[in-house]
């Protein structure tokens, strides 16, 4: 019964077509790794490009946790960290220009968008794969 809202019946004798919903959405909170650059490929709209670093931290070892008044203290174990770099592209005209003008290396920002997988040919004529976040929202945060 739940699927009926997603199913379209052409007739009782014809197999039904199930319409499938999907989503490609990403949210990132991090620091800008380089000042943005604006590129324009001939015949296409300009794009603002920059890198964004996100960090993941965890405690290794025996983590004994003690709770204080709204403060959690881990008393044993080492802290490990992993930094992941993301390539951000901004195509939307107003957002592209504001991002290019105001985002700077070290800025803390929140980015919403979608993941795009593509290919390009480098300077040595080698085909490479690239994962890019196509931003449709950039929120500037204070430090």
How would you describe this protein?
This protein is mostly beta strands and 143 residues long. β6 (65-67) and β7 (72-74) form a beta hairpin. Mean pLDDT is 83; it is low at 64-71. The protein is 7% helix and 53% strand. It is built from one helix and ten strands. It is found in: Mitochondrion matrix, Mitochondrion nucleoid. It holds the Pfam family SSB. It comes from Dryoscopus gambensis. InterPro entries: NA-bd_OB-fold, Primosome_PriB/ssb, ssDNA-bd.
Which terms summarize this structure?
OB fold (Dihydrolipoamide Acetyltransferase, E2P), 10 strands, 5-stranded mixed β-barrel, two-stranded antiparallel sheet, globular
Short description:
The chain has one helix at residues 93-102; strands at 7-8, 17-18, 26-32, 37-39, 47-60, 65-67, 72-74, 78-90, 108-121, 127-141. The chain is mainly beta and 143 residues long. Residues 64-71 have low confidence and may be disordered.
């Amino acid at each position: 019964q739940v699927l009926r809202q997603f199913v379209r019946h052409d007739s009782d004798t014809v197999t039904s077509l199930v319409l499938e919903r999907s989503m490609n959405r990403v949210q990132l909170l991090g620091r800008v790794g380089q000042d943005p650059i604006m590129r324009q490929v001939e015949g296409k709209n300009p794009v603002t490009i920059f890198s964004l670093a996100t960090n993941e931290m965890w405690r290794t070892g025996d983590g004994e946790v003690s709770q204080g008044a709204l403060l959690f203290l881990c008393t044993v174990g080492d802290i490990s960290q992993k930094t992941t770099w993301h390539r951000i592209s901004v195509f939307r005209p107003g957002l592209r220009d504001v991002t290019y003008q105001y985002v700077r290396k070290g800025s803390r920002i929140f980015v919403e968008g979608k993941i795009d997988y593509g290919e390009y040919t480098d300077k040595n004529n080698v085909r490479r794969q690239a994962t890019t976040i196509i931003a449709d929202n950039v929120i500037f945060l204070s430090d």
